[in-house]
Design a protein that fits this description.
The protein contains 26 helices and 14 strands. The chain is of the alpha+beta class. About 30% of the residues are buried.
């Protein structure tokens, strides 16, 4: 272009000089020229050279970079006019010096020309150096943005390879759609920064398994606006902000944040929507497995015309093999799978110096691990708080421990305050059967040491815990850790994990286990308190028997069983005779003891699966399934005989004793509801009680009268005498 430009501009100079300045040139093209004529021709020469050279070069580079020609010329060549003007003035000065003073004086201008050339050269060398420095700073800037953006994306459990692949897809699609150089640069930055606004979205929402609630989905929507607000201060020289704000707009206008539709959505945002969705669904996340390439393509086709621009979807799918080839060539084809949380949260580091690439990936893994740890602990707290059943809580504890540290056996012990030792409540994994029903006292083995000192135990050999339980040949464990379960000052138990592969549990793993056991202790204490409260709500505090509330629940269970099997059950009403007299004579403390003792005596006459409850005052109700009438009569006699033979010695006052009256009713025959059966059994019981009274007064002399309201004074005296004797 320099040769062509010099030829065209030189011919223009001589053409004007000959035809308009009327200068007759000799065969060498030399003739005296007046200054005003020379200046006009030199001005034409400079302008011709400036415009032809500038537009020619601008056209070539603008076509190459897909930028507007005029814009490229204005940005790159408009400012160079002064160099052409200076060259024309220099040529005029040299010509005048040669024509006025001879060529000797013109030769003297050579140093000036050389100095000018040197200055020009130094200037452009500096410009080139500055350009290279700017390019390097731009590269470093982009690399810094990429590193930080990838670190931020690690919060959403995405990988470094994800953003690199998205960049490849974006650049390839952008060139196919003939985007400008600025738009291509924006796509490269947008691939890194489009989700930067997720810093404002809580981790538990970003990584929640399953569907988001409407409120949670509304919270995620703010990341597009927040991302735009963050990046506004950067002043990118290319349009990154539209990508960040609009990459969740939908082709049908149902996207967010602005509800743009069709081609009103910036094309860069439409591209980002397609490629980000495609690559994201193929990556494994903690809460789901990644899709195959075929499934991801099917997802794009399904959303084409509704969610995505159909033209971009088809173009992307058409050229996907080429993109995947480039991805594979750069070593980005394999997903960095987010395997189990134990591998990422608390992995055991291998020896050896990592390479720069592995160190970078390890750094990103650590960032993801930190966020995943927060999420895992949040899930634990949420899971632990969702159940008040001890068995469910124990299962949740073991399950969550398995998500954060590796183990081959995990045992949870519950401490029995009354017995003073811990008993196995749940054991899973290897040798679980041998660990069941195991009791550990304070100081016994590593777990007993943790119980006694209420401190975590690590780096002790597991055989200390299996000296009695396992044969030495069966104890293949290499490491263990035991941690106490403590709520405030209350010792609840201990959690022990054993591994056959780990040399030892790391300090970081112990830290995580301490956090888990802290949460587990809170949950376990709540479950124990709930079980105690539930037991108290269904248990009579004085006798320890089920109360009337528990009776209603058991009655419903027995009704369901009877309806299912067709076999009825008996409801037995028991009422103590002369109990009021014992209270009045010996006091309520002895009366309470009498109730407890009689409750135990009656319960001892029942089968293991029979049910006995304290109904009210000195009345008890038993539910006895699958018993024939003659057997019930035999049971009644045994209970009456056992209670009648029992007495409590009262120092200095003789012995206190009571009797019992027993009546029963049959489900389906005497009634079908609890109230009906209680009334029927109560009537039968009072008939028996009346017969007991007649027996009491059998003998010589008249029988005392009995009023409707109860026994009269004479009867009380007789009963009092009997109770004392």
């Amino acid at each position: 272009m320099v040769a062509v430009t010099v030829c065209l501009s030189g011919n223009a100079f001589y053409f004007v000089l000959k035809n308009y300045a009327h200068i007759a040139l000799n065969p060498l093209g030399v003739a005296p020229v007046r200054l005003e004529q020379l200046l006009a021709c030199l001005a034409l020469l400079a302008l011709t050279h400036y415009f032809i050279n500038g537009f020619a070069i601008s056209t070539i580079y603008a076509l190459k970079t897909q930028r507007p020609i005029l814009k490229f010329w204005r940005d790159s060549y408009l400012w160079t006019w002064w160099s052409f003007l200076a060259s024309a003035i220099g040529a005029a000065v040299i010509y005048i010096a040669a024509s006025q003073f001879g060529w000797l004086y013109a030769v003297l201008s050579v140093p000036i020309i050389l100095i000018t050339f040197a200055t020009y050269k130094i200037y452009f060398e500096r410009i080139t150096a500055k350009t290279r420095e700017a390019e390097e700073l731009s590269r470093l800037h982009l690399a810094t943005v990429e590193a930080l953006a990838t670190a931020i994306d690690a919060k959403d459990q995405t990988t470094h390879c994800h953003v690199r692949r998205v960049q490849i897809y974006a650049d390839g699609l952008g060139k196919l759609l003939r985007l400008s150089e600025a738009e291509l640069a924006a796509m490269k930055a947008g691939a890194l920064l489009h989700d930067i606004g997720k810093l404002a979205v809580p981790d538990q929402i970003l990584n929640k398994p399953g569907m988001l609630t409407p409120a949670e989905f509304e919270k995620t929507k703010i990341h597009t606006i927040v991302g735009e607000q963050i990046l506004k201060r950067v002043n990118f020289p290319y349009p990154v902000l539209p990508i960040v704000r609009h990459h969740h707009e939908r082709w049908d206008g149902r996207g967010y944040p602005d509800g743009l539709r069709g081609e009103l959505i910036p094309i860069t945002a439409r591209i980002m929507s397609v490629i980000d969705c495609f690559d994201s669904v193929r990556e494994d996340r903690p809460f789901r497995e990644g899709m195959s390439t075929g499934d991801a393509v099917a997802l794009l086709r399904k959303g084409s015309g509704a969610h995505f621009d159909p033209q971009i979807v088809e173009l992307f799918i058409q050229h996907l093999p080429k993109f995947e080839t480039e991805v594979g060539a750069r070593g980005l084809a394999d997903n960095i799978h987010s395997s189990t949380e134990s591998n990422l949260i608390a992995s055991a580091h291998e020896d050896g110096m990592p390479t720069q690439e592995s160190a970078t990936l390890t750094a990103y893994d650590k960032i993801r691990s930190a966020h995943r740890e927060v999420y895992a602990l949040y899930e634990m707290a949420r899971t632990f708080g969702s159940s008040l059943e001890i068995e469910n809580t124990l299962s949740s504890i073991v399950d969550k421990v398995g998500h954060i540290v590796p183990f081959d056996t995990c045992v949870v012990y519950l401490f029995d305050q009354s017995q003073g030792y811990a008993r196995t409540a749940l054991a899973v994994g290897m040798n679980a059967e041998a660990m069941r029903d195991r009791c550990i006292a304070f100081g016994e083995g590593a777990t007993g040491f943790a119980l006694a000192n209420r401190q975590p135990v690590n780096r002790l050999h597991p055989s200390l815990d299996f000296a009695v339980t396992l044969d030495p040949m069966d104890c293949e464990y290499r490491s263990m850790a035991a941690l106490p379960l403590v709520k405030d000052d209350l010792l609840l138990g201990a959690l022990s994990v054993y591994s056959t592969t780990l040399k030892e549990y790391s300090d970081d793993q112990i830290r995580l286990l301490e956090t888990v056991t802290h949460l587990a202790s809170d949950a376990l204490a709540n479950a124990v308190n709930h079980a105690r409260a539930e037991s108290n709500a269904h248990t009579d505090a004085l006798t320890g028997l089920p109360n009337a509330r528990s009776l209603h629940l058991r009655f419903e269970e027995e009704v369901a069983r009877a309806q299912r099997t067709g076999r009825p059950f008996q409801l037995i009403m028991l009422d103590l005779d002369d109990f009021k007299l014992v209270n009045d004579t010996f006091g309520h403390s002895l009366g309470d003891r009498m109730l407890r003792e009689v409750a135990g005596l009656v319960h001892s006459q029942l089968r293991e699966y029979d049910f006995l409850a304290r109904y009210a005052g000195d009345e008890f109700i038993a539910i006895v399934p699958d018993v024939a009438a003659e057997h019930v009569e035999d049971l009644r006699e045994r209970i009456e005989r056992t209670v009648s033979n029992f007495s409590i010695e009262v120092r200095g006052q003789g012995r206190a004793r009571v009797g019992v009256s027993v009546g029963w009713a049959v489900y389906g025959t005497d009634g079908e509801t609890l109230d009906q059966l209680v009334i029927a059994a109560d009537e039968a019981m009072y008939r028996v009680k009346s017969s007991h009274k007649r027996i009491i007064f059998a003998g010589p002399g008249p029988e005392p009268s009995v009023t409707e309201s109860g026994i009269d004074h004479a009867l009380e005296e007789v009963l009092k005498s009997l109770a004392i004797n």
